[in-house]
Amino acid sequence: MDQVRRRRFLIAAGALLAAPLGSKAQRPAKIRRIGMLIPVRPADAASNIEAFRQGLRQLGYIEGQHITIEPRYSEGRDERFGDLAAELASLKVDVIVIWGTPAARAAKGATRTIPIVMASLVDPVGTGLIASLARPGGNLTGVTSGGAALSGKSLQLLKELVPGVTRIAVLWNPANPVQPVMFRETQVAAETLKIRLQSVGVSDSNDLDSAFDNIRQERPDALLVLQDLMLQAHRTRILDFVAKIRLPTMYERKPWVDAGGLMSYGVSFPENFRRAATFVDKIFKGAKPADLPVEDPTKFELIINLKTAKALGLTIPQSILLRANQVIE
Questions:
Q1: Alpha helices of 194-312 — where are they, by DSSP H?
Q2: Which of 63, 84, 218, 225 has the highest Cβ tally under 10 A?
Q3: CA–CA dist 129, 45 (Å, integer)
């Protein structure tokens, strides 16, 4: 009997000792918090943020179980980014994902320690945000938006589309810190293609009417609209204007073509956001932003609106149609 009691005592004691260890092993892992600084309205960013979520899910992160996402939207008002970035820093998020140069500057101003991942950014070296693409240094890394080089491709497509084109107007925002870089690259591409450019700078929405008058008077063969949030906010006015004067126009983002624009060529933003998720994963696994090389985009989209082409009396060449990622009938 003594041996039986002794055996039962040892078993019970072992169970008591094992219980705390077992419950500790089953304790849920820390939920990581991901802040996001987005320059547009929630509806305009929905597809990009969903692509980011999909990228995280593919890497094994489940919202509510492994991560939470804290998006903050400036809704086209860059001056709000300072407060939004400070709010995310005060929440002690584990990483901040940004879209655009103003968001990046605000995030870097708010924290030197929280990792920052760019999902889309033009020329981060030229704007002084990182030291180099290979070794960014500091707390910022991620994916660029391809930036200035895209405008050369856009000019080439316009030259293919409009027979005999010699002069193209460029609508751009000199107040945007990255737009002068993009415009200079556009000028370089235009010289190579033997195209004359008409610079139409718009620093404020109040300048749009005078810009439209300028374009009417100069009568360019086509128009290129460089991507800018202020111009995007007045997309309807610009689209109505070019439709009224029947001017073939190229844009750098798909939403313009969805809304009735003729053609766009640019980076796939959903793909960029999906790739940003891989940077977040590497950082969560211990990598430092300073050591993660910045990547250029790998996927670009050519979108064509055939209905708009017909309204302009244009026939899209087969050589362009074959390269299109999407044709809107």
A1: 208-218, 229-233, 235-244, 254-258, 269-284, 306-311
A2: 225
A3: 23
| 8 A C-beta contact, residue 127 and residue 101 | yes
Distances (CA, A) of 230 to 78, 107, 237: 10, 21, 12
Paired residues of 142 in beta bridges: 118
And the tokens for 232? 């995007």
**Residue of 262, 185, 191 whose CA lies nearest to 223:** 262
The answer to whether the pTM exceeds 0.85 is: no
The sheet with strand 116-120 has its strands ordered as: 67-73, 32-38, 95-99, 116-120, 140-142
3-state secondary structure 293-327: CCECCCCEEEEEEHHHHHHCCCCCCHHHHCCCCEE
Could you tell me how far CA 93 lies from the centroid of its own chain? 20
Letter for the amino acid at 280?
A: V
**DSSP letter assigned to residue 59:** T
- Decide if 159 contacts 193 (C-beta within 8 A): yes
Q: Would you say 77 and 147 are in contact if contact means Cβ atoms under 8 Å apart?
A: no
In tens, the pLDDT along 142-176 reads 999 876 668 788 999 999 999 889 999 999 999 88
CA distance 143 to 118: 6
Interval 48-104: pLDDT, tens: 999 999 999 999 999 999 999 999 999 888 899 999 999 999 999 999 999 998 999
Do 181 and 210 contact (CB within 8 A), yes or no? no
